[in-house]
Design brief:
251 residues, mainly alpha, Helix Hairpins, rod-shaped
Length: 251
């Protein structure tokens, strides 16, 4: 399998993995929305039951107030000697008390249903929150893993590029040193008159070469004079070797 085929297969698998991950994230988001909607329904149910219970409580409070008024009326009728009115008031009071008993049973049932729905809402809320944390954690881990994979891929590419550039720089430096050495050699040849300078004739170059040779000869002559003018005690005695290990010249 060629490198191109391998790269195509690698990128194809990455795209496939990204598609699968995208579909999974969509499913997780949809599940979270469904759970959130269910939680809202349960909360509305709790609110409706609580509202119904409060209405029953208001009815019970009204009945208790009416029963107290009828009881006072019955007492007043008895005090005035009107037993029939007292009986009628007490009859309505008893009827209200029976209605109150039924309402209390209904209120207790509503309270039990309210408590049950509240527990369900709390459990669903905890489940939804736990699911949200897991979903967000998974999404964050996937994002971090994708970023790390991209960084590793980019780092590999950079390292490869740096390696190629480093080799090219080493080759360029080696070539530069060769060119510098060639230029230095050419400068020496030009300075010695072996090679003509730019715009210089061959005769001028030859003359400059000859002058350079004369200068060198003059330097050697003056060096010989200085050596010959050294004091006697600085000269090597007969039979002694010179500084360079040679035998002195017999005069």
């Amino acid at each position: 399998m060629s490198i191109r085929d391998r790269l195509s297969k690698l990128w194809g698998s990455r795209r496939s993995g990204d598609d699968d991950t995208g579909r999974l994230k969509d499913r997780l988001d949809e599940t979270y929305r469904t759970q959130t909607a269910l939680l809202q329904q349960v909360r509305r149910g709790v609110a409706d039951v609580a509202t119904s219970r409060k209405r029953v409580d208001l009815q019970l409070a009204t009945i208790a107030q009416q029963a107290a008024q009828l009881d006072d009326q019955a007492k007043a009728s008895i005090a005035s000697g009107n037993e029939a009115d007292a009986r009628a008031a007490l009859t309505r009071k008893v009827t209200l008390e029976k209605t109150a008993d039924d309402l209390r049973v209904r209120r207790d049932d509503l309270k039990a249903e309210e408590d049950k729905l509240q527990l369900s809402a709390l459990k669903i809320e905890q489940d939804v929150e736990s699911f949200r944390v897991r979903k967000d954690t998974l999404s964050a881990r996937h994002t971090a893993a994708s970023a790390r994979a991209e960084i590793n891929s980019a780092t590999s590419g950079i390292n490869s590029t740096v390696s190629d550039v480093g080799q090219a720089m080493e080759s360029a430096e080696r070539r530069t040193r060769e060119l510098e050495a060639t230029a230095d050699a050419a400068d020496e040849l030009v300075a010695e008159g072996v090679v003509s300078r730019e715009g210089e004739s061959a005769d001028a170059a030859l003359a400059r070469q000859f002058d350079a040779a004369l200068d060198s000869a003059e330097v050697d002559r003056q060096l010989e004079e200085i050596s010959g003018a050294r004091p006697d005690h600085a000269r090597p005695h007969q039979g002694e070797e010179g500084d360079d290990g040679t035998q002195p010249i017999q005069r």
